[in-house]
Inverse folding.
């Protein structure tokens, strides 16, 4: 596989010299530096690279030229999305779930010559993000401007940084947003507790307000120390998909999501990032604010967490707020 073209740029590191690609998460406990994409539905892509160095994002050969704004089609229009919100509220009223994330996927034809590096450069300029990155391997290209940490790892210490609560400004955040964040923190604590040494799960930060381009989020931090023998397969089995993009209880939320969302999420709401197996370090983002390209199409997802106090139109507008800046940057004729 070493001769097949591929690259990744993550955490300020440029990875080239693609050695191999596997679907086996246990490979992340072996050796080498890996770029990782795990789709929401569980499809695993782990790509190991031979050359990894600190470097800025390379210059693309040509500037990004994306789809026209009118070329995008959504898996749910506003009426269907608002109906979905009302359906989730019905499930909540019946006691089946406390919160569920409802998402929609936008798809457009990919113009000839439009490559992931050019889009990554556009996003780096117009929407810098703490977990920005680009991964291209045969059959898949992912460009992420994610603000959210799914899992970081330093030896046996793991952290998650769930985001719940979004507004244009801090003044827009409601009590509902704080309650939703605490709900998901409890879920993440429970998930990590399945693979953590007893008594090591803690929450060093709860409901902090973070500013990002065009909006603010409530963000918490959950930390734990892995139990002996727990590796990447066990960690994913306990925590994936991420709690902030599913709901609580997770099993009920996933059942409801599967019934309401007509298209698979793919890398959106999955995991995107890197693992350095040699050093025992890693940072995987939740695949939000994320584009992916395959089969001549480009896709982007957006969603919102639904609780009993959710207003259907407000939740639709939250998905629009989350998508607007990124979609403008990715569309030809958008913000430059």
């Amino acid at each position: 596989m070493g001769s097949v073209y591929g690259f990744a740029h993550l955490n300020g590191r440029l990875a080239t010299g693609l050695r191999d690609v596997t679907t086996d998460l246990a490979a992340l406990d072996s050796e080498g530096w890996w770029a990782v994409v795990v789709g929401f539905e569980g499809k695993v892509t782990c790509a190991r690279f031979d050359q990894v160095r600190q470097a800025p994002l390379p210059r693309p050969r040509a500037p990004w030229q994306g789809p026209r704004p009118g070329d995008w089609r959504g898996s749910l229009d506003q009426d269907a999305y608002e109906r979905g919100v009302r359906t989730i509220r019905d499930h909540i009223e019946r006691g089946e779930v406390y919160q569920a994330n409802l998402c929609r996927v936008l798809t457009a034809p990919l113009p000839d010559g439009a490559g992931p590096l050019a889009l990554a450069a556009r996003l780096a300029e117009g929407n810098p993000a703490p977990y920005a990155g680009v991964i291209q391997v045969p059959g898949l290209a992912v460009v992420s401007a994610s603000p959210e940490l799914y899992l970081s790892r330093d030896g046996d210490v793991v952290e998650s940084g769930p985001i719940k609560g979004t507004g244009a400004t801090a003044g827009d955040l409601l009590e509902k947003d704080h309650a939703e964040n605490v709900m998901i923190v409890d879920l993440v604590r429970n998930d990590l507790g399945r693979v953590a040494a007893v008594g090591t799960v803690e929450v060093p930060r709860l409901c902090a307000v973070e500013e990002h381009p065009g909006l603010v989020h409530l963000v918490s931090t959950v930390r734990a120390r892995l139990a002996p023998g727990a590796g990447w397969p066990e960690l994913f089995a306990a925590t994936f998909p991420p709690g902030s993009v599913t709901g609580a209880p997770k099993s009920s939320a996933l059942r409801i999501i599967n019934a309401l969302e007509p298209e698979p999420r793919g890398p959106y709401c999955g995991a995107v990032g890197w693992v350095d197996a040699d050093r025992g370090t890693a940072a995987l983002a939740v695949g939000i604010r994320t584009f992916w390209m395959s089969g001549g199409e480009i896709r982007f997802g957006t969603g919102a967490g639904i609780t009993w106090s959710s207003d259907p139109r407000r939740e639709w507008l939250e998905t629009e707020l989350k998508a607007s800046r990124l979609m403008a940057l990715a569309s030809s004729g958008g913000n430059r």
Observations:
- The chain has a mean pLDDT of 94.
- The two ends are 37 Å apart (CA to CA).
- The chain has one domain: 7-330.
